Amino acid sequence: QVQLQESGPGLVKPSQTLSLTCTVSGVSISSSGDHWGWVRQPPGKGLEWIGSIYYRGGTFYAPSLKSRVTISLDMSKNQFSLKVNSVTAADTAVYYCARLEGGSGFDYWGQGTLVTVSS
Amino acid sequence: DIQVTQFPSSVSASVGDRVTITCRASLVISGWIAWYQQKPGKPPKLLIYAATTLQSGVPSRFSGSGSGTDYTLTISNLQPEDVATYYCQQPYSFPLTFGGGTKVEIK
Questions:
Q1: pLDDT tier at B44, thresholds 50, 70, 90
Q2: Contacts of residue B86 in chain A, CB cutoff 8 Å?
Q3: CA triplet B15, B56, A108: central angle to 5 degrees?
Q4: pLDDT per position as a tens digit, A16-52
């Protein structure tokens, strides 16, 4: 059974870097042909795709976030990570990690973690 | 980039009613659309992918249709547990995009 779990600080100061990790169990991210991605949801708002990474290392980012976002893989730990630089209050959201199964959509999701940007 | 417009933004219907939600893509996406259900405090749940394929375990009262740029999620025989917000998403090309969501309530 595939499971994903986000971890990281719940509070980040403005202008600092938001860092989250997604730990995957039940499947190896290095042997799967899937993409692994991040989606966020500001309080009371809709879903926003942040970016995705392919196990061979290719990355894709939302144009609105591309200059501030990095997604990377740690195959030895079966994890992938998200970094968002220079955060502002607008980056306050629940952050989800998820598996993108080809063109089928995100079929497995983490439970989500709320990150608040505040001094 | 492919924009996805979802409507209506909210719908209120009675138990047993048929509810239809539509997504329109700015380009032809050749059936590559997914539908999700999200309940408060929970992650989205994949309901339908490739426009018409029901994800395993999803009740058969959910169905999807469409082609080209226009796609529809239908909930037939609306049940109280279907109260949620529904999103469409195009996995056809990067950057991936979601519709704005449709909140489904019971009258």
A1: very high
A2: none
A3: 105
A4: 999 999 999 999 988 767 889 999 999 999 999 999 9
Q: Using the structure block, give the residue that is written with the tokens 């799967």.
A: A32
Say yes or no: A42 contacts chain B, CB-CB below 8 A: no
> Mean pLDDT across the stretch B14-38?
97
Tokens of B13: 């219907």
Q: Is the peptide bond before A14 cis (omega within 30 degrees of 0)?
A: no
Phi, psi of A103 (to 5 degrees): -95, 15
Residues 6+ apart with CB under 8 A from A49: A37, A38, A39, A62, B89, B95, B96, B97, B98
In whole angstroms, what is the distance from residue B96 CA to residue A33 CA?
Answer: 18
Mean pLDDT for the stretch of residues A70-83: 95
| Dist. CA A59–CA A35, nearest whole Å | 9
